[in-house]
Structures are given as structure tokens and as C-alpha cells.
């Protein structure tokens, strides 16, 4: 099955980033853009990403419809889409907190896939989870092909999607907050802010690359930089004293709970 024609409904940050990534990999595929805000569709059109279309025109013969709207708009948008998609059209949702049953009921379509990408897809470095429940091999393949254009892809059960939201969906905000704190720490210790920021960003980027390229467990690598009685163990003790690991774990748990509440 082909991804094209592909329809994007909702051209905000996430949807726009997804089709930009798709265009880089598939420069000739037909992408149709639907959003009430014409400035958003016009911007993507000016970049050569796709063309604006009315909902009726966009759905004609569509292979894939990407639903990238806010969850609270589902009832309104769903009413506009209900019963208007072809039997072979696959709907791929990137909405948080909306399960496949609600999507199928709202859209009147049995072919619905649920995914959870995160914001780094804006730079082709996203992390996306696909809920495999109820998907055929061809539908799963389409989702993988689509989401792999903007980063890495994992497969989970739909019951695990809320946890994905709490970890990787909300995770960029945690990492950015840590980056800010690391930068501020350098400034507190006497570094100029531009120097501190560059060091903080390079440290995070380099550490992640080290984990990926060596394949070693984080605990093993951490041991290599933690000398007995040295500077690092004193810094780690300060984090432990302030319950840093527990705070991060609770952040993931709290975001997971909120995702479940949104889907209730």
C-alpha cells in the first residue's frame, strides 16, 4: 500500500513537522493540507510541502489521513469526516489521550491507527510509538514508513500509550528544564552564560551519542566518570540528596496519569 495521496488535517507544529519530514524522504508524493487557518497551509505550500484543499477534495481517493488536531476538536472534526472516507483509507492519529474506540466511533471508520510522536520530530529526531492492537501487517507497515521519516519508531500495546505520553511525549520538556538547570549551574559557578549553554548542550548530546554508540548500560558509563572521592560523586550525591531520580520518575508518572484523564 502507498502513503499517497496523504491528507494532513491540522497543520500545527506537530502535523507540519511530520509532513515536512515526509516531503524530504518522498519529494513526489501528493500531500493535501486541511486547516481552517489558511496562513498555516499557505506556509507549507510556499515551502513546497503540499497544497491546501477543501475537506471534500482532500478525502477523494486518500490513502492515509493524518489526524493532527487538538483532542477537544475531535467531536467537531469527526462529524465532518464521519462516513466520508474510503474503505481503504487509513487514519493515523497523533492525538494524546484519545483511544482507537473513540476515534472509530467519531470517524465512522474501522481503519484507525494510534501513534504518539514527540516534538523533536520537528528536526527529524522524534520518537514515535505505534499502538499495534488491531492493525494488520500492511497498516502497521504504513505507520512505520510514515513515522520513520521523522525519527525512531517503537511498537507498543495501546494500553501502554499513556505511559509513552508521560515519557517521550512530555519528556522533551523535562530534558529542556534539565538543560536550563545545568546551564544555570555553570553560571552560578562563574561561567559566562553562552559558554555554559554550549557546554551543557554538548554534554547532553555527547552523552546520548556515547550511550548509543557504545551500547553500554548508563550505569556502566557513569562509573567510568565517577572516581572515588572525586568531583562527580559529590555532584551525584547532591542530586540524590534532593531526590532527583524520584522527581523524574514522578514527572513521568504524573504526565501518564494526566494522559489517562484526558482519555476518560
Strand order of the largest sheet: 3-2-1-4-5-6-7-8
The number of domains is: 2
- Terminal CA distance: 34 Å
Q: How many H/I helices?
A: 12
Helix coverage percent: 40-55%
Kindly identify the CATH topology of the largest domain: Rossmann fold
- Total DSSP E strands: 8
Overall structural class, as computed from helix and strand content, comes to: alpha/beta
Could you state the CATH homologous superfamily of the largest domain?
NAD(P)-binding Rossmann-like Domain
For the residues shown, what is the average pLDDT? 94
Radius of gyration, CA atoms, in whole angstroms: 21 Å
Low-pLDDT residue spans: none
The appropriate CATH architecture of the largest domain is 3-Layer(aba) Sandwich
Q: Describe the biggest sheet?
A: 8 strands, mixed
In terms of DSSP E residues, the strand content is 5-15%
